[in-house]
């Protein structure tokens, strides 16, 4: 007896893409767009299929730019796909702005979603810093704690490591302050 499980359109697209069934994936996305006007499906169509879906570079950029204007905070899937688009430097805005927009969307996904990987990714941004986010160990620890609560397997190890580092930094700072008073 075969057990069938209903999967979401986004899971279906990923399965089709990983199986090399691009034309079927494009058809699935177009169906989702026409039936439900799903913003995330438009973004996936543009970013993952582009020319294969008959889209020019100008049309791809327009889809991303329109999605940026239309997206609601509650649409976690669209924010996740915009994050991916900007990570791939797709969209009509300046290249310098794309990393900032990518992080903005990742933050919305992590705040409004319930995915441990998203929270962990935000924590990594804060722990190590990058062109968008300066290192902030307190903020990193907070996001690792969220990732841990959501079930990320590495988050607890990161929390313990950051706690030791923060405690060591605070002790060194206290010693330095004492030495200044003497």
Give the strand tally.
0
Instruction: List the secondary-structure elements in sequence, H or E.
Output: HHHHHHHHH
Helix share, percent: over 70%
Query: What portion of residues belong to β-strands?
Result: under 5%
Low-confidence stretches: 174-180
Shape: globular
Put simply, the count of helices is 9
Largest sheet: none
**Rounded average pLDDT:** 92
> What structural category do the secondary elements indicate?
mainly alpha
User: What does the radius of gyration come to?
Assistant: 21 Å
Spatial gap, N to C terminus: 80 Å
Overview of the molecule:
The protein is mainly α and 182 residues long. It is 71% helix and 0% strand. It has 9 helices and no strands. The protein has helices spanning 9-18, 22-36, 39-49, 57-70, 76-87, 98-112, 116-128, 137-149, 155-181. Helix 3 (39-49) runs parallel beside helix 5 (76-87), helix 5 runs antiparallel to helix 6 and helix 8 packs antiparallel against helix 9 (155-181). The longest helix is centred in the last third of the chain and has 27 residues, at 155-181. The radius of gyration is 21 Å and the shape is globular. The protein starts with 8 loop residues before the first helix and ends with a helix. The model is unreliable at 174-180 (pLDDT under 50).
């Amino acid at each position: 007896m075969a057990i069938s499980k209903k999967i979401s359109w986004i899971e279906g697209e990923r399965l089709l893409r990983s199986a090399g069934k691009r034309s079927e994936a494009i058809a699935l996305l177009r169906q989702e767009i026409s039936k439900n006007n799903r913003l995330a499906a438009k973004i996936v169509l543009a970013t993952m299929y582009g020319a294969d879906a008959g889209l020019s570079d100008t049309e791809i950029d327009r889809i991303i730019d329109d999605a940026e204007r239309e997206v609601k905070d509650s649409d976690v899937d669209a924010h996740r796909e915009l994050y991916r688009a900007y990570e791939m430097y797709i969209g009509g805005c300046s290249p310098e702005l794309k990393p900032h927009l990518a992080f903005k969307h990742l933050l919305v996904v992590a705040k409004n979603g319930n995915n441990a990987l998203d929270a962990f990714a935000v924590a990594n941004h804060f722990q190590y810093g990058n062109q968008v986010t300066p290192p902030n160990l307190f903020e990193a620890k907070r996001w690792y704690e969220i990732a841990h609560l959501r079930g990320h397997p590495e988050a607890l190890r990161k929390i313990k490591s950051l706690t030791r580092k923060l405690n060591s930094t605070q002790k060194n700072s206290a010693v330095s302050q004492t030495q200044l008073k003497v």
